[in-house]
Amino acid sequence: MPKASLALPLLYTYRRCPYAMRARMALLQASVTFDAHEIVLRDKPPGLLAVSPKATVPVLVLPDGRVIQESLDIMRWAFEGRDQQGWWSRAQTPGNQALVALNDGPFKRELDLYKYPQRAVDATPAFHRDEAAGGLLHALEERLATAPWLGGIAPCAADLAVFPFVRQFRAVDPAWFDGQACRATRQWVQAWLDGDQFHRCMKKMPPGLNSPF
């Protein structure tokens, strides 16, 4: 399909990928109507390979032909001109930017080694779990102990950016996570898991086809 023929933005996505998840949640929160193409990891579609040689999701193709290849850039685009409630602006504080950087850097590296220890020689899951928890989860708990959201009294794009990765971390061993002394963080995670926005974001789509959101 020629890029210029798109009637709506087209998001190449993978349902369980946390990067794609935060892109979908931002687009939904910003009330952007878009089509989503659920990829098959072992058989990536030619359309994705044509616009993004790196072929990692999410990738957003706009009707004017522009291609946005990073999840945070997709989030930024989603809220441009649509941020009346301050979702993006509240995420731009130094504290929130530091949390997102911690999430996308050290925490994600430890999370991958915790969840997929076979990817590295001599990786010890418990060690990487504790390293991840001692970094991001400690910082999150300090913030969320004083306010229910990273945006303060209301959530913001930083919440959307971080939550999918903490969700993935918890999913490795929910009993261990739920037994930790991070009550505010556990409540924050559960609030997102129970929320309508998360359930809309996680609707199942037929692989290989465009599905409207």
TrEMBL record:
InterPro entries: Glutathione-S-Trfase_C_sf, Glutathione_S-Trfase_N, GST_Omega/HSP26, Thioredoxin-like_sf. Residues 7-86 form the GST N-terminal domain. It comes from the Bacteria. It holds the Pfam family GST_N_3. This is Glutathione S-transferase N-terminal domain-containing protein. PROSITE patterns: GST_NTER.
